[in-house]
Amino acid sequence: MSTPLHVLIVDDSEDDSLLLRRALKRGGYEVTSERVDTSEAMQAALAAWNWDVVLCDYAMPRFDPFAALDVLHKSGNDLPFIVVSGAMAEESAVAVMKAGAHDCIMKRNLARLVPAIQRELAEAETRRARKQAERRLEESFVALAETVSKATAARDPYTAAHERDVAQLAKLVGQRLGLDDERLMGLYIGGLLHDVGKVSVPESLLSRPGALTPEEWALIRTHTGRGSQILGEAELPWPVAEMALHHHERPDGSGYPDGLRGDELGLEVRIIAVCDVVSAMSAHRPYRPAKSMDVVTAELRNGRGTKYDEQVVDVMLEILAAGEFRPEQA
C-alpha cells in the first residue's frame, strides 16, 4: 500500500518535476505535489498546504535554492529541504547545506531520494516532538512563575498586579528590540519573578502607609539578594536570578545592591529595571496615589542615560505614547 506524501517541488522544468514524481511513486509513495519556480509562488504554496518535504532544483535562472531556503525559513515551516540537481560542484553542495538544506542528491542517482526522504521525515518528526516537549516545559515554567508571583503579591495587596505588569511590559520592550522568542520568554518569567525575594520581607513593611526608617529600607532592599538566591537555586534556563538581583541597579552606578554601571548590566536587567519603575510609578501606593503618564514619561526622559538605559527608555516612551501599556494595578 502506497504512503501518502505531499511534495512541494521547486523547479522550472515540468519534465524534471515528472521525473521526481515517478521516482517517488516507484519508492512506494502516493504523491500529491505542486511545482513552483518563483518566490511568490513558493510563499503562496507554503501558506496554502501542509507539505511533507521540499525538493528543490539547484540550477534555475530566476530562483535558486538559497532564495527558496530563505522563503521556507521565513514561513516558519520546519520541513525537510532536499536539493536535487543534474550538476553541482562540491563547494556548491557544501554552501547550500550550510544554508539549511538537509541533503543534496544528483539526478543521476535518484535511488538515494526515497531513503533520504524517509530519513529526513523521521528526523523532522523527532524535531517536532522535541519542540512540543520544550513548549510544554516552557508552559509549565510560566504556570509555576505565575503561581509564585501570585503568592508573593498576596502578601502586598497594593502591588498585587505589579509583577504581571512588569512581565507584560518587558515582553513588549523585548519585541520592539527584536529579541527572539527564547529571550522574550525569559523576560516574561523574569518580570513575574523579579520581586520574589520579598517573601523574606515582613508584610508590615510592604504595606505600611507611612514613611520607613533607614533601617527598614535597608531590610526591604535585601529582597534583591534573596530573590537571586531563590532563583539561582532553581537553575532556570534564563538569567532570571540576575534580573532579581540587579533590577534596582542604575547605569550611573547609583543603584543597589552592587553599584554596577552601564555594560556591567545585562540587557534583560536593563529592561526589567525600566519596566519596574514604570509599573511602580503607575500604581497606587499606601503613601501616595498613582502617578500620571506625563509624570512617568518625564521621569524616564530626565533619567535617560543616567538612571535608565537609553535604548530601553526610547522604546518604552514609544510604547507609552502608543498607549500599549494598560496598568493592571492602576
Look up the CATH topology of the largest domain: Hypothetical protein af1432
Number of helices: 14
Question: Helicity level, as a percent range?
Answer: 40-55%
Overall strand count: 5
The radius of gyration is 27 Å
**What is the CATH architecture assignment of the largest domain?**
Orthogonal Bundle
SSE arrangement, N to C: EHEHEHEHEHHHHHHHHHH
Roughly how many Å apart are the termini?
Answer: 64 Å
Low-confidence parts, pLDDT < 50 over ≥5 residues? none
> Strand share of the residues?
5-15%
CATH class of the largest domain: Mainly Alpha
Report on the biggest sheet. Answer: 5 strands, parallel
The overall average pLDDT, rounded, is 89
Which structural class is indicated by helix and strand composition? alpha/beta
Shape: elongated
**Count of the domains:** 2
Relevant CATH superfamily of the largest domain:
Hypothetical protein af1432
Strand arrangement within the widest β-sheet reads 2-1-3-4-5
Explain this structure to me?
This protein is an alpha/beta fold and 330 residues long. It folds into 2 domains: 3-127, Rossmann fold; 154-321, Hypothetical protein af1432. Helix content is 55%, strand content 9%. The protein is built from 14 helices and 5 strands. It has helices at residues 14-26, 39-48, 65-75, 90-98, 113-153, 162-176, 181-193, 203-206, 214-221, 223-234, 240-246, 267-281, 293-303, 310-321, and strands at residues 3-10, 29-36, 53-56, 81-85, 103-106. A 5-stranded parallel sheet has the order 2-1-3-4-5, with helices on both faces. Helix 5 (113-153) runs parallel beside helix 7 (181-193), helix 7 packs across helix 12 and helix 10 packs antiparallel against helix 11 (240-246). The longest helix has 41 residues, at 113-153. The protein is elongated. The mean pLDDT is 89.
